[in-house]
Amino acid sequence: MSAIADFNLAANDGTDREHQVQLELLQRLCEATSTSTDAATVKSLLEQLIDYSEAHFMSEELLMRMKSYDDYAAHQDDHNRMLEVLRGIANNSTDQSALLAGKAREMLNFISGHIATRDKRLADYVRQGL
Questions:
Q1: Which of 98, 97, 101 minimizes the C-alpha distance to 45?
Q2: pLDDT digits over 77-105, tens only?
Q3: Which of 115, 1, 69 has its CA nearest to residue 9?
């Protein structure tokens, strides 16, 4: 296998692991906002999720730029939207309402859909070595 093919496979494997961590953090957030978890714990989970997502999105966007990915702008728009919603949730994290829990579930669904569509397309693109 060529060095480029090895890089492409490693990039996809690394990204898949990052997605799993991101989804696990989101699931924990959904559970915390749906139960009587204290506001400090919810805030801590949100901070972890935002920090992790920022780092993940930065590395994914760098990979897209390195590969001259044709769907970069739309993909990045999804990332920006996700971070905007997560930061909005963080700004209201002291409110343990059903609204907060609903927003967390919406974000889990949105990110799951993003991974299944946009990230899958990116992974296929990278895997093909384009």
A1: 101
A2: 999 999 999 998 888 766 656 778 888 99
A3: 1
Structure tokens of 36? 């009587």
Q: Where in the chain are the domains? A: 3-127
Q: Residue 27 burial (CB < 10 Å; 0-12/13-18/19+)?
A: middle
Q: Read off the tokens for 97.
A: 């309402």
The pLDDT of residue 6 is above 80: no
pLDDT in tens, 9-43: 444 566 678 899 999 999 999 998 888 788 888 88
The confidence score (pLDDT) of residue 94 equals: 62
Pick among 3.40.50.300, 1.10.10.10, 1.20.120.50, 3.30.870.10: CATH of 3-127: 1.20.120.50
